[in-house]
Amino acid sequence: QKLGENARQAATELRLDFHIEKVKDLRQIMAFGVMVTPALVVDGVVKVAGKIPGVEDIKKILAQ
Known about the structure:
The protein is of the alpha+beta class. Helix content is 42%, strand content 14%. The protein has helices at 2-13, 26-31, 55-63; strands spanning 39-42, 45-49. It has a two-stranded antiparallel ribbon. Helix 1 (2-13) packs across helix 3. The longest helix is centred in the first third of the chain and has 12 residues, at 2-13. The radius of gyration is 11 Å and the shape is globular.
């Protein structure tokens, strides 16, 4: 839940048009090659797995 909150705050602060989806289905998670959660996926690409990045870290990821 915290990852979603941080991602929402980061995207809002950057004034991005975004959609956040929390995926709980193990098959969907594994389809991304994620073996440890939580994970942050941006435009179909896994950016972070196994930790909860802070808002500033996510802003850097989204700005790339």
